[in-house]
Amino acid sequence: MASNTKYIFITGGVTSSLGKGIIAASLGKLLQSRGFSVTIQKFDPYLNIDPGTLNPYEHGECYVTDDGAETDLDLGHYERFLNIPTSQNNNITTGRIYNNVITKERKGDYLGKTVQVIPHITDEIKSNFYKLGEEGKYDVVITEIGGCVGDIESLPFIEAVRQAKWDLSPNDFLVIHLTLIPFLKAAKELKTKPTQHSVKQLLEAGIQPDILVCRTEYHLPPDVKKKLALFCNVQLNSVIEAMDAESIYDVPLLMKKEKLDERVMSKLKLSSKTNANLDNWKDFLGKLKNPTQAVNIGLVGKYVSLPDSYKSIIEAFTHAGASIECEVNLKLISSEEINSDNFKSKLKDLDGIVVAPGFGERGFEGKIETVRFARENKIPFLGICLGMQVAVIEFSRNVLGLENANSTEMDPNTPYPVIALMEEQKKVDQMGGTMRLGSYACDLKKSSKAYAAYGKTKIQERHRHRYEFNNSFLEQIESKGMIASGKNPETGLVEIVELKNHPWFVGVQFHPEYKSTVLNPQPLFVKFIQAAIDNKLK
User: Fold this and answer.
1) What is the pTM of this model?
2) Would you name the residues annotated as active-site residues?
3) Residue 433 in this model has a pLDDT that exceeds 50
């Protein structure tokens, strides 16, 4: 491992969903602002090899990296905050660890030894802890341990963290424990006992946290901080208050105010490489909180009851809206509830419409009605992945008159398979990690709306799909005014479709939302919001 890399481990206690990912991303941002190169990785304790086969209701969206890894949605936060790409090595699950160990055992790598959780599983976890640090690119590697201390499935990870302390020098190892300080309304009191118990569990596992970050709805009085320091065995100035924030993007500044970065640097014996500079971040927050206009955008999909299913899309609208000082009021609409009788009432009063990605036929016809409404009423439209495919199918049915045109995903026997299974997918019989995944090139037509957004003819965007535009219908579709404005230069795969006679109607086969960050808003989202503003002012 790289001797000059510092390793920070973030654990959680009391309850899940406290925001370890946001704290990790915020700390990474603060250290980055001081001139350090930082990366963040997530270790998830579930047995799936990756979240690619998980229903979004189970785990939120599946985030895709440039190198084609299907990962936890927290990696999206890491990229959005740090403005640098993550990779396959930034998200490791228990399933991946066990898969690696069993593969080695089958090959005979353990020379006949009995393969056990300790040392073989913990050694495999540790080698993955250090992998990014060994690349020599990073001053600091932040590792978020998923789940809660005390969870059975987290035990091997916690033990690996304990062992890491002995692998690393004292100035290269740090543990931050994120915990909850609940407020009991009946007693009108903040309670420290759950945190004390959580730290006690960590101590029983052999780990003393260096810093406590305390999620709370109310300010922590000095006596509460003293109590936490005393009974959790940490220094008083290492008890960090993490108040509920108006926006996740406030958290880096709140953590700076609490001096989290200073405490970390002090304990790791780090000196700032530059003066901390968060001016760009503050500019973004200023625009986010002081919009000069507002639009109503409908996000139509089938997983809308869990907004985390569309996390990257929602955040991309935040970044793009702030960049042009526009408040985007997103209305999440279930495509299952839209039909030919009610689509007007469901979709009225929208300045723009997005049809979201997804798989399967549930809610599919509702998406068809949505696209038709946007096309016929000249409402700005953005279709993402399946949303683009729906746009092609709707156009084929209602403009070309190809009755029952469909995707072979929805109807294998459709007479007009305008969307069909990709050639390389036809032999695939496993679900996990087998789609077209990761970053691919796309060439844009100069006269197109896509080119107007990106300002260049060659782009790279991330994919996650099995089905594609069927090029045997391309000439017919283009003859009626739906143009293929973006294509993959190697395969000829249609990546982007647009309507000629429409103010702003764009469908993309890729997922533009994955590459949107605070400092680099995704250009298609920016142009779409601008089109929605223009539509509203008509």
Assistant:
1) 0.91
2) 385, 511, 513
3) no
